[in-house]
Amino acid sequence: MTGVKQSWIADLLRFDRRDDVFVTRPTAAGPGSRLFGGLIAAQALGAAGATVGAGKLPQSLHLYFVRGGRYGDEVELHVERTRDGRSFDTRRVTAVQRGAAILEMIASFHVPEPGAEEHPTPAPSVTLPDACPKEPDIEFADRFEIRTRPEDDSVFAVPPFWIRTRDEIEDDPLLRACTLTFLSDFGPVPVARPSGVPLEPEPGSSTFAASLDHSVWFHRAFTPHHWHRYEVHQLNVGDSRGLVRGSLYDGDGTLIATTAQEALWRC
Fold it and tell me: How deeply is 124 buried, as exposed, middle or buried, from its count of CB atoms within 10 A (0-12, 13-18, 19+)?
C-alpha cells in the first residue's frame, strides 16, 4: 500500500531479483564487524519463500554458516527449486558475497493440514514478571524488547529470556517466520560455551566463538510483537563444539518453534 511504512524486517527483505537470484541491499553496521548470522538466515528464508506457491508456509530450515560475511557489501541469494510437491516445496539457498559462499541453507514449506496438537509444557525457567529489562550490546538488539533473568549481568542476552519486537510486523506468515529466524540466533552461542570459559574473554585472549550451523522448525503461528520466552539448553560439548537446543514459547506456554545450533568455541 502506498504511503504505508514497511517494518524493518520487510525492508531487509527487499531484494533486487533476477529470476531466482535475489540481491540484498548492503546493510550498515560497525566497521569490521561480521555479518549477524540471524540476518543472513532471515534473508535466505525470505528469498526461498518468494519462489514458493501461495498457501505453503515455512516448515523448517537447516543451514551452515560457511564463512563470515561482511557489512556494507551486497549478498547474492541463489535459490534452487529442489522440489515442488502437492504438500511440500523444498528449496536450497546459497548466499554469496564477493564471489564466495557464506551460507548454505535447505528450507521446506508445507501446506497447513489439520491434525493433533500436542507438545510438552515444562515450567518456565523465568517468568515475565520476574524478568528484568535489558539492552544487550549485540547487533540489532534495538529492534527488540528483551527481559532476562536478574542475574544475567553479561553484555549479551543469555537465555532463558523474554523477547518481542518493538514495532508490529506485517501480518504475513513469511515475514513473521523470517523475524523468528532472525531473533532465534540471539542466545545459542553463549549457552554452548564450555564450563569454566568466561562469557566475556579478557582483552588479548585467544578464545574464539562462532555459530557453525542452525536449524529452525516452525510449529505454530508467531506474533512478533507479543512476548515470547526463549529457552536454550546445552546438549553436548566436545571437539571444540557446543550443541544446544532451543524452544520458543508464547505467553500462554504454547510451543511456537524449536531451534538447534552448534557453535565453535576455541579456547
Answer: middle
